[in-house]
Design brief:
This protein folds into 2 domains: 56 residues, no CATH class; 56 residues, Arc Repressor Mutant, subunit A. It has 132 residues and is mainly α. It contains 8 helices and no strands. Helices cover 66% and strands 0% of the residues. The chain is elongated.
Length: 132
């Protein structure tokens, strides 16, 4: 688990990286989401589980990692998805494993972040059209 966390935090994929928080509470949350990317708790529940208000959690996330919780979680999903898709898993399988209700909601999120649907993005990577 520690090796995975270190590799994810250091491994850029395109313009993506996954900054890891230093705060022990946020680190525990990050580790939970990496281990269970399909976890469906609300932001309010995550905050409550850490003994914080939503506002405090939001502020601490931005201060620690420079992005919102939602943006960090999307980046995590993109990185995990790219790893799985590159190993041959289908878009539908990856979407469901990451906790999306269906493949199209996952594809929409992916397209908003990277500008292309997953299959086209991977094809661009393979052809060298997208550079890190």
């Amino acid at each position: 688990m520690t090796t995975l966390l270190d590799e994810l935090s250091d491994a850029p994929i395109g313009d993506l990286n996954l900054p890891m928080p230093r705060d022990r509470r946020l680190r525990r949350l990050a580790e939970t989401l990496i281990a269970e990317p399909n976890a469906k708790s609300s932001f309010a529940r995550w905050a409550d589980s850490l003994g914080m208000s939503e506002r405090s959690l939001s502020r601490l996330m931005v201060r620690e990692i420079g992005m919102s919780f939602g943006r960090w979680r999307h980046q995590l999903h993109i990185i995990l998805a790219l790893q799985r898709l590159a190993s041959g898993e289908s878009v539908k399988t990856v979407a469901l494993e990451l906790g999306y209700e269906n493949a199209s909601s996952f594809v929409n999120m992916f397209r908003k972040i990277l500008g292309q649907p997953p299959v086209r993005y991977l094809a661009s990577l393979r052809s060298g059209a997208i550079r890190s």
